[in-house]
Amino acid sequence: MHGFMRTTGDETTKVRQEHMPPLQRCIRIASGIWNMYSVEAEIMFTPQEREEAGKLCLIPELQKSDPELEKLINTIAEESKDPENLPKVLGGLLSKTQELPQHSHFLMMLFVILKNVIHPHHGEYEPSEADSLFLWGQVFYFGMPDNTPFTFRLGEQGSVATSLSKSSLSKVFDTGTGPRKCDCIFAVSGVEVGNAEAKKAGVHDHEVDIQLRKNIKIGKSMLLMLENYQLSSPPLLSIHGKTATVFSISRWNKIFIAGKAGPVLMLPESELGWRIFLNSKAQAVYNLVTYYHKYSKDAAYKIAAHAFESKTKTATRHSSEKETETFEWLNLVMHSPTKSKLGKELADISKPDGKRFRRLMQEAMAKMQKDEDEDHDETKAIDDLDDNANDKTIDDDGGEDEDDDQQLLKRGETASLDIITKRRLKRPRCQTM
After folding, report:
1. Alpha helix ranges (H) inside 335-416
2. Which helix (H) or strand (E) holds 247?
3. Three-state DSSP class for 129?
4. Which of 169, 255, 254, 247 is nearest to 215 (CA)?
5. What does each C-alpha distance from 367 to 353, 361, 370, 374, 378 come to in angstroms?
6. 336 or 269: whose pLDDT is higher?
7. Distance in angstroms (rounded) separating the CA atoms of residues 177 and 167
8. Which among 225, 286, 216 is positioned nearest to 245, based on CA atoms?
């Protein structure tokens, strides 16, 4: 490759060859996504472009501060000065839900977080990815009103949106259509709206970056599906233990961008961390939960409206009308294969295409059968020649053999030098006394 080309509006810029990204990033580039968390991407865009793209990803609602909540937080922080008083503070949070019903969901969210500080469900063991997802799931579950049409599923499951993206790609290339697995999928009215990917706290930052890149591509697939309902991408989470990077995906010029949607969130791990959390991150976490509540309400309405319009169009469309479908490169998402559970040594081996595998097996079996038939014909020809030779008198110098060979070649029977050679090797020679 002589260089890497990028297009911004009507301007095309050629980046020097030494700035070519490594192979593992080429997949992301081919998917048309600018990962704004990538340091290497900065050399491809100007400061003005980075500022413009960053504003599209930023969600203002995640940055706001509520004076009433701030006052309530200060009261709870004052009660939490003595670490030994935290069990009493925990009970006080439940009492405050009755006294301040307008803040009951915020207080329940704090209750779940503080309870995990005092008595984590995983005990003294190091929390796993599943433990991290479970805690963040509780934050969403108890922080939202009961009428929120927002659901989330924990544990590895295939994403429908990624399967649709891979299906579009398979129309052009010989690729599979299996869904990409996700750690947690957010849904509204049965439609995937977002996801969260998690790594346990102890893993290296490099693995977290890889997880973020995977999450970004999944997010683009979901955004392509959400655009059918006139919906934008909600904030998505890349979780590392009790820390969460909040980002969103949007269209910008002729590409997609993935960048910061709100502040990095962090849940407390200790009694001291609890007070720090109250003064710095409590409102930010609740802003995220509140945003998802409002987003899911709007999404549920638009999804229902889309379903209604689709039924109307289906009823009025003539049966002879056919819709044409074209492949657009802008909608391409090249998902990396899901890692095998057999071990890291098998991580780069993707599941084989079943149809192609059966076709190759049939071709191999047909070739084997053909080879066996040819061997059988040659063996039969040799045996026939041997039977004829045994009926003749064989002299000491083998002169009769040469006559038989010459006659065989003249008649043009199965005859090849290979058969004659095999016959001579197989026939026992007479010895003179």
Report:
1. 354-390, 399-411
2. strand 243-252
3. helix
4. 247
5. 21, 10, 5, 11, 17
6. 269
7. 5
8. 216
**Cα separation, 383 vs 380, whole angstroms:** 5
CA atoms within 13 A on the CB side of 392: 15
Going by C-alpha positions, the residue among 4, 7, 47 that lies closest to residue 22 is 4
Note the pLDDT tens digit of each residue in 164-204: 766 555 555 555 666 778 889 999 999 999 999 889 888 88
Q: How far apart are CA 8 and CA 211, in angstroms?
A: 27
- The model's pTM is 0.67
For residue 177, the model assigns a pLDDT of 65
| Alpha carbons 269 and 263: distance in angstroms, whole number | 19
Question: DSSP for 134-196?
Answer: HHHHHHHHHHS-TT---EEEEEEEE-HHHHHHHHHHHTTSS---PPPEEEEEEEETTEEEEEE
Taking each helix axis as running N to C, give the angle between helix 282-316 and helix 104-118, from 0 to 180 degrees, rounded to the nearest 10.
Answer: 120
Pairing of strands 236-240, 243-252: antiparallel
pLDDT band at residue 159 using 50, 70 and 90 as cut-offs: confident
Structural domain boundaries in the chain: 4-54, 56-307, 354-426
Compute how many other C-beta atoms are within 10 angstroms of the C-beta atom of residue 265: 21
DSSP-derived 3-state class of residue 261 = coil
Rg of the chain taking only CA atoms, in angstroms:
35
Q: What Cα–Cα distance (Å) separates residue 167 from each residue in 81, 162, 172, 327?
A: 56, 8, 9, 11
Q: Report in angstroms the alpha-carbon separations of 308 from 72, 300, 316.
A: 44, 12, 13
The helix, strand and coil proportions of the chain, stated in percent and rounded to the nearest 5, come to 55, 15, 30
pLDDT at 372: 75
Between 339 and 240, the more confident residue is 240
Contact criterion met (CB below 8 Å) for 377 and 340: no
Give the pLDDT mean for 360-379: 76
In angstroms, what CA-CA distances link 60 with 56, 96, 186, 235?
A: 10, 29, 21, 11
pLDDT at residue 392 is higher than 80: no
The percentage of the chain sitting over the pLDDT mark of 70, rounded to a whole number, equals 67
Can you tell me the distance from the alpha carbon of 335 to that of 80, in angstroms, rounded to the nearest whole number?
47
Tens of pLDDT, residues 24-62 = 444 445 567 889 988 887 788 899 999 999 999 999 999
Asked whether residue 23 carries a pLDDT value surpassing 70, the answer given is no
pLDDT of residue 429: 47
